[in-house]
Amino acid sequence: MQTELTQSGKLLNHDGSLAQVGWARQPLLDCNLEEAKFYSLRFLQRYRIKRWDYYAIFTPQYFFSATVADIGYAGNIFLYAMNLQTKELHEEGLVVPSSRNIVLPRNSDEGGTHFENEKVKMDFSLADGKRHVSASWKGFHNGRGIEAEIDLICPPGYESMNIVIPIGKRRFYYNRKINCMPASGTLRYGDAQETLDPATSIGSLDWGRGVWEYSSYWNWASASGFLPDKRTVGLNLGCGFGDLSKAGENALILNNRIHKLGAVPFDYTSGDYMKPWKFKDEEGRLDVTLTPFKERIATTKAVVIDSEVHQMFGFYNGKAIADDGEEIIIKDLIGFAEEHHARW
């Protein structure tokens, strides 16, 4: 049984334990990471706490993603873009010792995210029912350069997928996924510039905070798009991490409302990732297949960090059942699914 949280409060008790475990439609809990207690020496706590903001945006021409992350003993800044017509994909990243110059907000509905050095500048901010993504990487892709000034529509009434789960006895994960945010603004990549129309461009946010095991593994799948009747539709699916008995992140997102799903196994061939990925829940509410058209392989190896992700871009096709019984036909909904191994 999944536990839906409805009461606001603190994420952690004074002894470092989770105050609540479950899922919610809104970010109800104050992320008081200063109360984390899993090492006897308090000054070591910060080196195991992970925090990140990951934005992903689909336009008619491009997929664009920007991330600012602090994994405790280092920062990780990365940006990648793919031309959806040619399938050309390019990615660049930085490992930042001691997470210098990285600013991340305490909670997902407040403050701003910032990083800047001589190569790259990223700012993620909130104002007037919008989330603004500003990114500039002048030397990106052999000097082609990339710049983004994008607004994502996200008024307070939008629902999102929020989970709070334990990982082992002393660790935890607090995560918010916001799908289906219509996007406007501009994206310049080299000599090409695209003006984003919120009727055809759409974005999502993966906001994570927590304390993970050093060796971790997870699957994640996500999609955001539009139905023929102009309603927004999205999927968020995940497994492979923590204790999901009270809160999984599986959901159909329809017109920015969460339709919670139960367990959804990831049926795919590890090592042969271009084969179809199938997703079918146990309650008969979801039956979709992702047919990949592009594999992104990203690796990070830096002393104590060893990460490898296979992120498959493709089209979802199938059907889903909303809470009121409406059958939603999903046809060529663009999105991705991934397998991720990390020692961090």
Chain-wise SSE layout:
Elements lengths: L8 E2 L11 E3 L4 E2 L18 E10 L3 E9 L3 E10 L5 E9 L15 E4 L3 E8 L2 E8 L2 H4 L2 E8 L7 E7 L3 E19 L2 E5 L5 E10 L3 E12 L5 E8 L11 E4 L2 E4 L5 E2 L9 E4 L5 E17 L2 E17 L5 E17 L1
Parallel strand pairs: 1-3
Antiparallel strand pairs: 2-12, 4-5, 4-15, 5-6, 6-7, 8-9, 9-10, 10-11, 11-13, 12-13, 13-14, 13-15, 16-17, 16-24, 17-18, 18-19, 20-21, 21-22, 22-23, 23-24
Task: Describe what you observe in this structure.
The chain has one domain. Helix content is 1%, strand content 58%. It has 1 helix and 24 strands. Strands 2, 4, 5, 6, 7, 8, 9, 10, 11, 12, 13, 14 and 15 form a 13-stranded antiparallel β-sheet that branches. Strands 19-18-17-16-24-23-22-21-20 form a 9-stranded antiparallel β-sheet, with no helix packed on it. The chain has a two-stranded parallel ribbon with strand order 1-3.
Question: Could you state the order of secondary-structure elements as H and E?
Answer: EEEEEEEEEEHEEEEEEEEEEEEEE
Low-confidence stretches: none
**Content-based structural category:** mainly beta
Total DSSP helices = 1
> How is the biggest beta sheet arranged?
13 strands, antiparallel
- Helical coverage, percent range: under 10%
Q: How many strands in all? A: 24
Give the termini separation.
31 Å
Rg over alpha carbons:
19 Å
Count of spatially separate domains: 1
Approximately how much beta-strand content do the residues carry? over 45%
Mean pLDDT metric: 95
Shape annotation: globular
